[in-house]
């Protein structure tokens, strides 16, 4: 099949990889831009905003993001990826602009919810584009490249925010203006690169093999629709503890992403750009970790549970070392290792394990429940850690809770997988 877009130049599927990676970069530049600037946001709004209220900025974003997942997936199937992505990013841009003009924390909350709703259009569209256009033999590694955009964007956002806002004393709104510019660039790229429904149909019609494959998938889908996954299988011990494990994994990650810059600045003496550079180590270290451990798990497919358990325990240990480190060197080493061993490294292995162990009927439902558990932690963790900070004057207890959840979730998952024969679905 000719996978090139109209005219000459780079193959269409390669353009899709670059486009989607850039999309994640844009989303995560925005996501990570506000955390280092919490003190500046507080000062601009009168100086009486609690840490709980500041943490809720992130929670409101993820609330909108979670709420949009199912509707966006439905719309992608109904009207097409391009018609979902472009309006979604328009809402995202309006939200960033609204936040830049906010005169109260309530306006920031409103903008955060809108930004979450707008960004929520991206995941389903991106997954559909990669599934449809990237050659199967290149899909796993290509997807890893696309996903690395989140780590790159997070690192860039943290560094820029801490350098421009914290060190150079520029208004915190500067990061929102930068986000708006990036969003506009992505909108132009979406319009120019992504094919519409008619073009997609013509493209698929070029290959009889592709049509046969689609027909086969549709036939399988029709069979699945006649059956349903039972509640007992969906929440069997193996599945339930996998959900809990993913909740704990995401809780630790989103708590760290939200509060690490503030923790380093207020409790560990980091200043200016050093806050952003140090916080970004988690993001940048996760890229080689994800690529390395995914390849390793694919090579030793029968040892995925061991990989998951070891990585989760090591990540918990590194997070514990982060808050107990007596000097900046140990702290930075712990952060690098947490990024290398943490969520982005273990997540592909957990998802792969889930695909192999989920009920044969209802894999999509299982993945939906799995993702729901994970994303709910992103709503809870920022606000809860802010509340702990208000009550105790420190965020250390928030890190301890994340460590405890990781250890508990990993232990339960390990116990559930000790005897494969008894827990096979």
Automatic annotation (TrEMBL):
Keywords: Membrane, Transmembrane, Transmembrane helix, Transport. It is a multi-pass membrane protein. Residues 16-421 form the Major facilitator superfamily (MFS) profile domain. The chain crosses the membrane at residues 12-33, 53-72, 84-102, 108-129, 141-168, 174-194, 240-260, 272-293, 305-323, 329-354, 361-385, 397-418. This is MFS transporter. Its main location: membrane. It comes from the Bacteria. It is found in: Cell membrane. It comes from Enterococcus rivorum. One of its GO terms (cellular component) is plasma membrane. The keyword Transport applies. GO terms for molecular function: transmembrane transporter activity.
């Amino acid at each position: 099949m000719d996978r090139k877009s109209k005219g000459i130049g780079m193959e269409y599927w390669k353009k899709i990889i670059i486009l989607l990676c850039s999309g994640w970069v844009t989303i995560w530049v925005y996501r990570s831009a506000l955390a280092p600037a919490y003190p500046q946001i507080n000062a601009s709004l009168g100086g009486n905003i609690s840490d709980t209220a500041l943490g809720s900025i992130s929670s409101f974003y993820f609330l909108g993001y979670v709420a949009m997942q199912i509707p966006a997936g439905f719309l992608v199937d109904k009207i097409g990826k391009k018609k979902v992505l472009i309006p979604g990013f328009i809402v995202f841009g309006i939200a960033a602009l609204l936040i830049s003009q906010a005169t109260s924390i309530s306006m920031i909350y409103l903008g955060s919810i809108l930004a979450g709703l707008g960004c929520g259009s991206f995941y389903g569209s991106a997954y559909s584009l990669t599934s449809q256009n990237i050659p199967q033999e290149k899909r796993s590694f290509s997807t890893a490249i696309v996903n690395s955009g989140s780590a790159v964007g997070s690192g860039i956002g943290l560094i820029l925010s801490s350098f421009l806002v914290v060190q150079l004393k520029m208004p915190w709104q500067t990061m929102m203006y930068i986000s708006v510019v990036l969003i506009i660039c992505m909108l132009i790229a979406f319009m120019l690169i992504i094919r519409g429904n008619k073009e997609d149909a013509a493209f698929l019609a070029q290959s009889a093999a592709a049509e046969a494959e689609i027909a086969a998938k549709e036939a399988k889908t029709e069979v699945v629709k006649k059956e349903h996954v039972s509640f007992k299988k969906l929440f069997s011990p193996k599945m339930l503890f996998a959900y809990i494990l993913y909740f704990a994994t995401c809780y630790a990650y989103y708590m760290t992403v939200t509060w690490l810059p503030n923790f380093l600045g207020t409790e560990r003496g980091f200043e200016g750009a050093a806050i952003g550079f140090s916080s970004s180590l988690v993001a940048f270290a996760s890229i080689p970790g994800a690529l390395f451990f995914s390849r390793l798990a694919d090579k030793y497919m029968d040892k995925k549970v061991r990989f998951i358990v070891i990585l989760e325990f090591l990540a918990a240990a590194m997070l514990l070392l982060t808050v107990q480190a007596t000097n900046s060197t140990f702290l930075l080493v712990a952060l690098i290792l947490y990024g290398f061993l943490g969520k982005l490294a273990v997540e592909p292995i957990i998802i792969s394990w889930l695909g192999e162990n989920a009920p044969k009927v209802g894999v999509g439902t299982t993945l939906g429940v799995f993702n729901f558990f994970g994303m709910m932690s992103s709503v809870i963790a920022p606000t809860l850690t802010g509340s702990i900070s208000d009550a105790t004057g420190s965020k250390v207890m928030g890190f301890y809770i994340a460590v405890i959840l990781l250890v508990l979730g990993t232990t339960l998952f390990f116990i559930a997988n000790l005897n494969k024969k008894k827990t096979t679905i």
